[in-house]
């Protein structure tokens, strides 16, 4: 399958989100850094050198969004959530989210089969057509152990990158997405008034109101 390319008049930031979420890209480039590099090359291939440098800088400074699925879903540990000192957190914005309900997986499918077949239910045996393969069982058991609930609008550190933080939030359609933001190699220095003022002015943080954008969350961290 071909690598995604920008559609006519498509915003390149939106293309990056679409490219990073593409199922084929996820399969062929499981490493986040590799997928970023491939998508970035497609996003900037018809730009001038100056335009490309500006776009790359903006991407590194902010980040991108992805649709949530079983492949990129991650249950943060309590100590991985950002603190109020790191990011301006507002407890009233927090909301519990259960991916096992929104994105039914193996355990949910088994539960539905039990309900559907009632007393006639029998677990699939090894070799049966609907018997999950060993890898699926391993993945499901891991998910069962970790739990499937996370907190919306509460950023957490991402252990596998490529950005410093990620946050689950809902878009206008009511779907949960994951927003990745923050340069992992850059230290936030909002405790230095001059640096904080410069960052917020440069990125027009006073107008950053959309929680589905990396700019909103990056500005919250400054």
Structure description:
The protein is of the alpha+beta class and 222 residues long. The chain folds into 2 domains: 61 residues; 153 residues, no CATH class. It is 40% helix and 12% strand. The protein is built from 9 helices and 6 strands. A 4-stranded antiparallel β-sheet has the order 1-6-5-4. The chain has a two-stranded antiparallel ribbon with strand order 2-3. β4 and β5 form a beta hairpin. α1 packs antiparallel against α3. The longest helix has 13 residues. The mean pLDDT is 81.
Task: Briefly say what this structure is.
The chain is of the alpha+beta class and 222 residues long.
Largest sheet: 4 strands, antiparallel
Rg result:
20 Å
* Structural class determined from secondary elements: alpha+beta
Task: Tell me the number of strands.
Answer: 6
Number of helical regions: 9
β-sheet strand percentage = 5-15%
| Order of helical and strand elements | HHHHEEHHHEEEEHH
Q: Order of strands side by side in the largest beta sheet?
A: 1-6-5-4
Compute the average pLDDT. 81
Distance between the termini: 41 Å
Whole-number count of domains: 2
Helix proportion range: 25-40%
Spans of at least 5 consecutive residues whose pLDDT stays below 50 are none
Shape: globular
């Amino acid at each position: 399958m071909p690598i995604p390319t920008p559609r006519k008049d498509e915003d390149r930031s939106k293309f990056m989100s679409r490219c990073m979420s593409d199922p084929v890209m996820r399969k062929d480039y499981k490493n986040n850094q590799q997928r970023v590099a491939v998508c970035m090359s497609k996003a900037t291939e018809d730009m001038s050198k100056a335009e490309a440098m500006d776009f790359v800088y903006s991407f590194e400074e902010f980040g991108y969004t992805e649709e949530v699925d079983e492949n990129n879903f991650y249950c943060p540990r309590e100590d991985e959530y950002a603190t109020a000192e790191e990011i301006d957190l507002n407890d009233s914005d927090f909301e519990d989210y259960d991916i096992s309900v929104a994105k039914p997986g193996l355990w949910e499918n088994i539960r539905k089969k039990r309900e559907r077949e009632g007393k006639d239910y029998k677990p699939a045996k090894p070799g049966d057509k609907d018997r999950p393969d060993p890898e699926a069982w391993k993945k499901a058991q891991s998910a069962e152990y970790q739990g499937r609930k996370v907190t919306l609008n509460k950023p957490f550190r991402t252990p596998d990158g490529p950005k410093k933080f990620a946050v689950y939030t809902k878009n206008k359609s009511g779907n949960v997405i994951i927003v990745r933001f923050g340069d992992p190699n850059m230290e936030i220095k909002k405790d230095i008034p001059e640096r904080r003022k410069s960052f917020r002015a440069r990125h027009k943080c006073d107008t950053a109101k959309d929680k589905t954008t990396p700019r909103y969350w990056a500005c919250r961290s400054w």
